Amino acid sequence: MSAGGVLPRLEPARVAAEWEPAGATTVRAIFAPHPPHPRAVTQPSEHRQSARTVHIGVYHRPNRALRQREVCAMEQRRLAMAVTGAGGTRMARYVLSALVRDDRVGHVDLMVSANGRKLLAHEFGGAETDDPVSTLLGGQSPKVACWDPDREPAGPPSSGSYPFWGMVVVPCALGALARIAQGQANTLIERAADVCLKERHRLVLCVRETPFNLIHLRNMTQVTEAGAVVYPMIPTYYNVPQTVDQMFEEFTARLLGFLGLDQTDYYVWDVPGTAAHRERVGQR
Description:
This protein has helices at 64-74, 89-101, 114-124, 132-137, 174-181, 188-199, 214-226, 244-258, 275-282, and strands at 8-12, 16-19, 25-36, 51-56, 77-83, 105-112, 144-147, 166-172, 202-207, 229-230. The protein is an alpha/beta fold. The chain has 2 domains: 3-62, no CATH class; 69-258, 3-Layer(aba) Sandwich (Rossmann fold), CATH 3.40.50.1950. The strands form 2 sheets. A 6-stranded parallel beta sheet has the order 7-6-5-8-9-10, with helices on both faces. Strands 1, 2, 3 and 4 form a 4-stranded antiparallel beta sheet that branches. The longest helix is centred in the last third of the chain and has 15 residues, at 244-258.
């Protein structure tokens, strides 16, 4: 213990917080010593590296972020997905369908921008007012909640207190990427992306445009420096896809694998290639 009875800084490996009658926060954790922290105090008899309870009076509410990260680690993943006004909304159908089928995903918050609805109507037929979930899945799913990003900017993913694992925007218009890069959090899509960046959640932006101008490239650099991942909708060609659907299927599998939701070994490289390549070349 340092002078003045101050303990080394405490870094919890596992934390759960609850209210104390006196208003302090109780933290149950396994601690590792760090340089002194003037606001962490406890009894001298408890100063040893072990699991113990420490009362920290400087906090006025439970540490919700730590509780949420612990819950997300133990339970099924809750993900946010956005569809914006860029061509390629059929890819969104494949991605959402795969998320719904995956038992590791417990909930998906779907957001479709006004231009995204225009693209759904254009690429799937139907009207802009059609329900996006039914358009993408052919019906409803208890896993999917749909939010209008323009009319419901205060939907759950807009708050850092909402326990979701991350967000994927597919397809991601470069206008949407630019607003995210500049912190223009006006709609629910932009606010959810902003939450991902500030809470250090995974944010994956599947851009589709080509070619890129200098403004596009600078915006992609800025959003990458902020913590997002720019994941262009570029197919692989070495697996020799025979149909557009095969290209969609492979991109979806690789995207979900990048999110930590491995789907198949069919596209995984081994010597002398992948199972997909061997099968497709062998059929020629």
